[in-house]
Amino acid sequence: MRHPRLVAVVIGLVLLGVPIGVGMHDRGVLTSDANLTAGTTAQHTYTSWKGAAGFGAGTHEGTTVADGELVMRTPIGTKTLGGRSWQTSRWTSAWATPAHAFTQLVPSWNAATPTGTLIQVRLRAKAASGAVSSFDTIATWTLHDGEFERTSYGAQTDDFVNVNVDTLRADTGHSLRAWQVRVVLMRQPGRAGPRVTKVGGVASQLATSLPATSKPLYGARTLDVPRLSQMIHRGEYPEYGGGGEAWCSPTSTSMVMAYYGRRPPASDYTWVSSSYRDRYVDHAARRTFDFRYDGTGNWPFNTAYAAHYVDDAFVTRMATLRDAERFVHVGIPVVASISFDRGQLTGAPIGATRGHLVVIVGFTAGGKVVVNDPAARDNGSVRRTYDRGQFERAWLRRSAGLAYVIRDSAHPLPAREGHTNW
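Below the sequence we write its predicted structure tokens.
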């Protein structure tokens, strides 16, 4: 059964005469710009497991590592989902213990799920007191639909953590110190099973107020990221989250995939009307659609989709725009989750939004942010330049610097140099 999102996507929704392009659920992290230099500093640590070394360190129950991927060896049980019976096996990571306490955890994964296969991602956490939570189910995922409707889950409020669509959160008054991820591999009898290339998550201690605007790190550089508008898809396939007006997340994801020359082949979207432009955006909307959340803005669903076509994709958080500059400097655009009220982002194609995804493609010599904003009315007007301070606050205000990192093997990650969030 579908579950209404926290921020409903309604075709033609208008605030003060300006349409709102909603692409994600509102986290409500910060709401005020007051006292910008006060409060605690955000801390983010991304941890991942991949290859023989990473997956080998976990606990295998019917799984093994083959050619660097986590695969099913022998089923250990069966589970009924979507009216079908699935054979299951599972892998559980070692405990990840960031150097800081945290209150939120966003997972992400790279996996191949051929027809007749699924993966399920579960998380649990250890509190500062030493108490250990139950494993909460974050998602049951497959790239395809038809056999199973990929889905997030409910709040699961049985202990000191809860789930908000794709984020594990500590209950008020609790602090977390460590976490584990469990991946359940599922297949229909006779199928080979899914393959998991990487699984990880970003643990975050959120700031209590917005910081002062960061200083530019590098000089001018703008990446040649193709420009795509979600708005040219108005009214297309409204069963996927309300249609193009709401597709800021898959449109942003599609822009970055196109930058690497990794659009899905036309054979993957023959179902899209030949009269539509940029038909692969419709494909991305369908394949990122969360049937419970009823939208295309599930963060790890977008990176999991991108990873099917590009070499690596994950969700993380960044403390300031200086982190994004490090990625742009090495040729990697960053998809950023922003929110703002009327008058808070000069030059934006929409007046206000509780959640919107854009692509950071560059910076000017003075540090302004060059963005591909999919809410523009057409492809030609997607490229925007935003004030650094306004954009940074829009990014940190509610999503706390949430970002999709999507890259091919020709673009290594920037040097960490003490950073822990990639």
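Confidence is low (pLDDT under 50) at residues 1-22.
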